[in-house]
Specification:
The structure holds 2 protein chains of 2 kinds. In chain A, about 25% of the residues lie in helices and about 20% in strands. Chain A is an alpha/beta fold. In chain A, α2 crosses α6. Chain B is built from 29 helices and 28 strands. Classes of the chains: A alpha/beta, B alpha+beta.
Chain lengths: ~250, ~775
């Protein structure tokens, strides 16, 4: 089976700046049961970086400049979403790299966010949506913090629409943790207009204290290509996640 | 926990194994053939074929493989027409036809597409969640078996009356099962149907469609060839679930007097299936399998006999090598088990190590069962003792074929004579502006015409990133090639009421609508898959409905020039002596050279001209309006396949050349439904005047709005394209009338002669119905 070709190679030729963008390598992790890995790879490519497929059983991250943990149902979400995936050999490498001085940028989307909380890289947890059903919708979000590794290309307070699709998307944490997240500006995204799952304080995504690790339930990698994204608003408002980290990587390397 | 090695499993088993040797010595042993669903003449035939009584294991195999569900014994004689009525035009793009797990159609550029629709009706009534979930699982494995990557699913559903207390049980379970399984596989759900009718109360129809894509060189077939090649079973372990599901459940009508059949329903594990998909694709990529077959109905019985009979030799397998979930299973049970998420493959000795490496990578369990032989026999042993020794063709292909008696029922004339117009239920037909507005609102909030978003928002339509269009547009559209934009469009349709009124034309109407839906999206229709849901074939009236539907469908395929490439027949959908409406669900697949050119169903741009294509006759029999009024009689709308083809060409050309911005076909609910749906799609209204239509077609406003005349569509044309578009219609001699303009400002749908409808109120009415009944 030939894999479906993804959108053509990013424009590697051209100006020097573009060349360095395409040189940036962003790893996309696949666990058994991961579903949106091909979509994350496409998003990375459309942003102009070079995607690198990472396998959960790998024991090294290679030379990637950032990592995306995509959505899906790793290990079937059996036991608890993300609870088994956190024990994968590659997760130890990701945790070490994220906490190192280099502060590897890590983005967890949906199941990836659940894996980050299960790994204690981010506080809190996700439980079943308050309406108890899987929900797929185009969701309006507000970017509350544009200083993280993954949000630099957005304006603070900017509202973006990206698809949301999950069963266990209700973000919860104790009041003290929630207060601390708010006080430290670590609430990165909030649901606007409609809280689709009962998340505390309308929280859709958060960051670690250093801002290099970000997790959210909605799917920015499904809003990167005209004609294949949300039906309301622009359908490419998720691309900023991937261009943000790219600019961060290129900026750090200057 | 049981040890995994075959040796320790068998130590725990103390069966009195019925070997072939024993069977030959004990011809008079009583066997439970009737309990396993065989009829006396069928059992006698097994004895004749074997020249002795079957062993218990052989009996198990024949009983499931000769069941209605697996053998098509009642429909085979009629289904032949799909293979016989085929023109060169229809064969042109067919790479694999009926008979394999799924047909394969050439898309060009080296791409091929495979799709199939199947039923999982009976299990979904008994246990809605698992029945619907494993329906998705089974059809997806059919697609993988062809060598394809599955890329989307669809689910046509038919349940009992919306307000019946049991409908919510089936609805919640089936929708959650389809979502729970499909969402976990990473396959977007791009469309389907939802119909409520009391005829489906005890026999809901849960059909599932899957589509997959592959390069031509990756096409795989289910055959076991090459002496010495190894036979391997991999995926989930074999358990006690679904034993005899095919023979016992799907081939019998429900009857309250019999004990519960819950244990015959299978239980699904979507995670195991997702891993199996990726693992199989890796096997295909490395060319590591010679032949492959999924395990569905009839489990190992089906896989071994089909692989062996489609190959060039025989097969010999050791049944104690099968990895079990339940070590107490008997050989017969192991052969019949319908445990999900299993595949069987044939591997050359040289590829064994590479095959095992792929299994280890994905942590998929496997066991080598035996090898391909050149004896022409399928031999199954239990600890070396022969318990099955058969010609595999007699199991898989040469089952009984019945020429069941069929006859047009006596009541058909009376039903057809009972037209809606002038009936008791037709009293007080609305004509005043306020009444017509109320009628439109009532229609679009009725169970069958209301918004299905309560269902579709529980399905992931985004995953894969290639969904160009999904419900509620006319067809689901998926991109196949990201470089060129090449893609496919799919629609499924059926109308049980039309088919009840006239099975021959009703089946054609289902095909015509699916064809029209695909063309409306801008795609060129290419292939058909059908799921024929009917009552008991032992009832001559039902058998007549089936025969007529197949004849109608195969005739219409010839006219439209698209072949049936596969499908499924589901019989015995009846409670007591009351069958469901004959419900042939027809799926049509089309091709778009670039999915960017797809045509959505909703209006968007202010000031665009709205045209109605086709003419309108007074055809209310079998319509949604008559259904709302509790009437079913008369004759369904007239079928005009030449007009459908002409309309299709206009819609396809208009899409390709950028002449239309939106298109929506007219079907159930007629023009009224199409106008409201086009407006609500993006929340953009219109101003409509139908006087020209009324004058030309000689119908009144009510008829223009609610008639279900076929071969019609509503399109929105940019001002700059109007002349080109109308010239094209004129040149092709196709009726077209400008009926209004898109109005992006007003927030209303204005129809001359109908009180103005606010989009907000329409949306509220349209979307409130399913939540009202299902929470």
């Amino acid at each position: 089976m030939t894999e479906l070709p993804l959108i053509g190679e990013a424009t590697a030729a051209g100006a020097g700046a573009e060349r360095s963008l395409a040189g940036a390598k962003i790893g996309v992790v696949t666990f058994p049961g991961t579903l949106d890995d091909r979509d994350a790879v496409r998003a990375v490519r459309l942003a102009g970086a070079t995607p690198v497929a990472l396998w959960h059983a790998d024991t090294t991250l290679g030379d990637v400049d950032a990592v995306v943990i995509p959505g899906g149902f790793s290990y079937g979400d059996y036991l608890r979403a993300g609870a088994i995936a956190r024990f994968a050999p590659l997760m130890s490498r990701i945790i070490d790299a994220a906490n190192s001085d280099a502060k590897l940028p890590v983005l967890g989307i949906c199941n990836g966010f659940q894996i980050l909380t299960e790994s204690h890289m981010l506080p809190g947890s996700m439980i079943k949506n308050d309406q108890l059903k899987f929900m797929c919708r185009d969701q309006l979000l507000r970017v509350e913090n544009n200083t993280t590794s993954w949000t630099g290309d957005y304006a603070a307070g900017q509202e973006i629409t990206v698809p949301l699709k999950n069963q266990d998307g209700q973000y919860i944490a104790d009041e003290k943790t929630l207060d601390a997240l708010e006080a430290e500006g670590r609430v990165v995204f909030r649901y606007v207009g409609f809280n689709p799952n009962g998340s505390r304080r309308d929280i859709a995504g958060i960051a670690n204290a250093a801002g290099n690790v970000v997790g959210l339930m909605p799917h920015p990698e499904h809003a990167v290509e005209a004609g294949f994204g949300p039906e309301i608003g622009s359908d490419t408002e998720g691309l900023g996640f991937f261009t943000s980290v790219l600019n961060k990587i290129v900026g750090d390397n200057k | 926990m049981t040890e995994t090695s075959a040796g320790s499993i068998t130590e725990t088993k103390k069966f009195n194994i019925d070997t072939v040797e024993n069977a030959a010595k004990t011809p008079d042993t009583e066997l439970p053939w009737a309990e396993l669903g065989l009829k006396q003449n069928e059992f006698d035939e097994v004895v004749t074929v074997l020249g002795r009584r079957p062993t218990g294991a052989e009996l198990a195999m024949y009983s499931v493989m000769w069941s209605e569900h697996c053998s098509y014994k009642s429909s085979k004689n009629h289904l032949r027409q799909f293979g016989e009525k085929v023109t060169d035009e229809m064969k042109k793009d067919m790479l694999v036809g009926i008979g394999e797990n799924a047909g394969v159609t050439n898309l060009g550029d080296g791409w091929a597409v495979t799709f199939k629709i199947e039923s999982h009706n009976s299990p979904s009534f008994v246990e809605p969640y698992q029945g619907a979930a494993t329906g998705i699982g089974g059809i997806v494995r059919d697609i993988i078996s062809m060598g394809a990557r599955p890329v989307a699913v669809m689910d046509p559903l038919r349940f009992g009356a919306i307000d019946h207390p049991d409908t919510a049980r089936v609805m919640h379970g089936a929708v959650a099962g389809i979502g729970g399984y499909g969402n976990s596989l990473g396959l977007p759900n791009i469309g389907g149907e939802m119909v409520f009718d009391s005829v489906y109360q005890g026999n809901p129809l849960v059909n599932a469609l899957a589509v997959g894509v592959m390069r031509h060189e990756d096409i795989r077939l289910a055959n076991a060839s090459g002496k010495g090649n190894k036979v391997v079973l991999f995926g989930a372990r074999t358990g006690g679930d679904g034993i005899g599901g095919a023979s016992v459940l799907a081939s019998e009508s429900f009857d309250d007097t019999k004990p519960s059949k819950r244990p015959a329903v299978q239980v699904g594990d979507p995670f195991a299936e997702k891993v199996l998909i990726e693992c199989c694709l890796e096997l295909f990529k490395g060319s590591l399998v010679e032949g492959i077959q999924d395990l569905g109905a009839a489990g190992i019985s089906c896989a071994t006999s089909e692989l062996a009979s489609n190959g060039d030799g025989g097969m010999e397998v050791e049944l104690t090598s099968v990895l079990l979930r339940d070590p107490t299973l008997t050989p017969g049970e192991i052969l019949m088990s319908e445990s999900q998420e299993r595949m069987m493959a044939v591997v050359t000795p040289e590829n064994v190590a590479a095959f095992e490496a792929v299994m280890d990578k994905w942590a998929v369990e496997y066991s080598w069962l035996g090898e391909v032989t050149d004896t022409g026999r399928l031999i199954i042993t239990w600890e070396g003792e022969v318990i099955v020794d058969v010609d595999p063709r007699t199991v898989a292909h040469d089952g009984p074929v019945y020429d069941r008696p069929y006859a047009r029922p006596e009541w058909q004339d009376a039903v057809q004579a009972d037209a809606f117009t002038g009936s008791v239920q037709d009293a007080g037909r609305p004509s005043a502006p306020a009444d017509l507005a109320a009628a439109v609102t009532e229609l679009i909030s009725s169970p069958n015409m209301c918004s299905k978003s309560w269902i579709t928002k529980q399905y992931d339509r985004y995953v894969g990133g290639n969904t160009a269009m999904a419900f509620p547009d006319d067809a689901g559209v998926v991109r196949v090639d990201e470089e060129t934009g090449l893609g496919v469009a799919l629609a499924t349709d059926a109308n049980g009421r039309y088919t009840y009124l006239d099975p021959y034309h009703g089946a054609q109407l289902a095909l015509a609508e699916a064809y029209r839906n695909v063309a409306t999206s801008g795609a060129v229709p290419m292939a058909v898959s059908d799921c024929l849901n009917f009552g008991s074939p032992e009832d001559p009236a039902v058998m007549w409905q089936l025969a007529e539907a197949i004849r109608g469908l195969s005739d219409a395929c010839m006219v439209l020039g698209i072949p049936v490439t596969g499908g499924n027949v589901s019989l015995y959908n009846q409670t007591g002596t009351t069958p469901i409406h004959p419900s042939p669900v027809v799926a049509v697949l089309g091709k778009l050279d670039d999915v960017a050119r797809r045509t959505p169903s909703g209006w968007r741009e202010d000031g665009q001209a709205i045209y109605l294509l086709g003419t309108t006759a007074a055809e209310l029999d079998g319509s949604e309006w008559s259904n709302m009024r509790g009437h079913l009689g008369g004759l369904p709308p007239k079928v005009d396949l030449a007009a459908e083809r002409a309309l299709g060409e206009i819609l396809i050309n208009a899409s390709r050349d950028g002449m239309v911005d939106s298109a929506h076909d007219l079907s159930e609910g007629g023009l009224a439904a199409a106008l409201v749906e086009s407006a609500l799609r993006y929340g953009v209204g219109a101003r409509i005047a139908l006087q020209d239509v009324l004058d030309r077609d000689g119908v009144d406003l009510f008829t223009a709005l609610f008639s279900e005349t076929q071969g019609r569509a509503v399109v929105a044309v940019p001002r700059s394209e109007e002349i080109r578009f109308t010239d094209m219609c004129t040149a092709r001699g196709f009726a077209h009338t400008r009926i209004g303009v898109v109005d992006a400002e007003g927030g209303t749908l204005e129809i001359n002669g109908v009180e103005t409808l606010s989009l907000e109120a329409l949306r509220e009415a349209h979307e409130a119905t399913l939540p009202k009944y299902f929470g």
